[in-house]
């Protein structure tokens, strides 16, 4: 069912005060570009269309924000009114248009729905009341009715004293939109076509303006610099942390937890300080994550412990594993149950069977490892000849001696033992002992040089 709702998101500005090569709207909140966040919120309202006005850094925006919307280019930033005008060809003459901003990332659907409900078929305006309204457009009322918005730079002293401000977010009747936008002039302090002048035009047309005050300032706060970006990031993170606490996750310190994506969790999960979760992460019951871990796109099954300073990416950890401290699980590491991966052990594109242990200083890459196998400290799988990557297959209950190098491609059977310090480059059949190192020589009667006594 169509509700004849259209959404225009303004995102053409440069963001000079970000001092960045990247256009402002690509800076991220919770690991997602601000403009992508606004598009996703807009989509939740099930509008008939979403149109995003871009300009500065448009190639970067198109490259990074893969969303099914109508992209419109505003080649010159002549003001917010002009920006909405560039979207006019994509708006039908019936229904209504909600205007959002690519640099106002935290607006929620409840706020927008309240605005739409208040507006009806007339004009809805989202307002705020600020102790320090400097810089914002002021809401001008007559007999209680909103009759105009005056920009800071055009305001007189009395208008500047008004604390009721324009958030910029508004909803407009499409039937009036073209007429109003085409009658805007840039005869003002900034020489811009102000969208805010539509409020006075609506009044002149006898169309009421329905103000809705935002429940909390951050819901309509824009980002102009890194200070504001950091403030909104913290608010966003605090809200996410509170939601996880309420759902039963133990966060040792909610102020030192960052979720840049989605976290699915079981019961009795404990997360220590300075943990960063990115992308899609799923953790089972009784999982403990130690301090300073970074976990991205990973699945961690029930009962596993990830000790401090571990880094996990695109990997799967089975039940009751012990990972870290200082472990690195790279893409396509797939660990079965009861696996131990200890300090300074790196696993990449390798499946590891149940109960296998690699507790110290080891690299396991491009490998298939059986169960109950043990890697001695300092084992390296040499998977790369400088051009090609080769596979290593290791069976069950194998004991790899310390300081071994396994040169791929190589197949090591079940219950094989390899001597410490071996360079294994030939296949070893089940049950054998393989030693590949120089034999020890002892020189009898050797006299060691000594300094003459003083
Ligand atoms: C605007 C409002 C002001 C309000 C404030 C809230 C106007 C004239 N003023 O002022 O009343 O209090 O927002 O933050 O609307 N943009 C374009 N193309 C343009 C101009 C702007 O895409 O040609 C985008 C910008 O990238 C920005 C947004 O629109 O994201 C707001 O524009 P900006 O010029 O920053 O307006 P403000 O001066 O903040
Ligand atoms: Ca602004």
From TrEMBL:
Region called N-acetyltransferase, residue ranges: 248-454
Q: Where in the cell is it found?
A: Cytoplasm
Q: Which InterPro entries match?
A: Bifunctional_GlmU, GlmU-like, GlmU_C_LbH, GMPPB_C, Hexapep, MobA-like_NTP_Trfase, Nucleotide-diphossugar_trans, Trimer_LpxA-like_sf
- Chain positions covered by the region annotation Linker: 227-247
Question: What's the record's note on cofactor binding?
Answer: Binds 1 Mg(2+) ion per subunit.
Question: Active-site residues?
Answer: 360
Residues bound to UDP-N-acetyl-alpha-D-glucosamine: 10-13, 24, 74, 79-80, 101-103, 137, 151, 166, 224, 330, 348, 363, 374
Kindly list the positions annotated as binding acetyl-CoA.
377, 383-384, 402, 420, 437
Binding positions (Mg(2+)): 103, 224
Domain (MobA-like NTP transferase) ranges: 8-121
Biological process (GO) annotations held by this record are: cell morphogenesis; cell wall organization; lipid A biosynthetic process; peptidoglycan biosynthetic process; regulation of cell shape; UDP-N-acetylglucosamine biosynthetic process
Q: What is its EC number?
A: 2.7.7.23, 2.3.1.157
In its keyword annotation, does this UniProt entry include Ribosomal protein? no
Which cofactor does the UniProt annotation name? Answer: Mg(2+)
Segment Pyrophosphorylase: which positions?
1-226
Keyword set, alphabetical order: Acyltransferase, Cell shape, Cell wall biogenesis/degradation, Cytoplasm, Magnesium, Metal-binding, Multifunctional enzyme, Nucleotidyltransferase, Peptidoglycan synthesis, Repeat, Transferase
Q: Name one GO cellular component term.
A: membrane
Q: Which reaction does it catalyse?
A: N-acetyl-alpha-D-glucosamine 1-phosphate + UTP + H(+) = UDP-N-acetyl-alpha-D-glucosamine + diphosphate; alpha-D-glucosamine 1-phosphate + acetyl-CoA = N-acetyl-alpha-D-glucosamine 1-phosphate + CoA + H(+)
Is this entry keyworded Isomerase? no
Q: Record's Gene3D superfamilies? A: Hexapeptide repeat proteins (2.160.10.10), Spore Coat Polysaccharide Biosynthesis Protein SpsA, Chain A (3.90.550.10)
Assembly and binders:
Homotrimer.
Q: What is this protein for, i.e. what is its function?
A: Catalyzes the last two sequential reactions in the de novo biosynthetic pathway for UDP-N-acetylglucosamine (UDP-GlcNAc). The C-terminal domain catalyzes the transfer of acetyl group from acetyl coenzyme A to glucosamine-1-phosphate (GlcN-1-P) to produce N-acetylglucosamine-1-phosphate (GlcNAc-1-P), which is converted into UDP-GlcNAc by the transfer of uridine 5-monophosphate (from uridine 5-triphosphate), a reaction catalyzed by the N-terminal domain.
Q: Which NCBIfam families does UniProt cross-reference here?
A: glmU
Tell me its family. Answer: In the N-terminal section; belongs to the N-acetylglucosamine-1-phosphate uridyltransferase family. In the C-terminal section; belongs to the transferase hexapeptide repeat family.
What is the protein name stated in its UniProt record? Answer: Bifunctional protein GlmU
Q: Which species is this record about?
A: Neisseria animalis
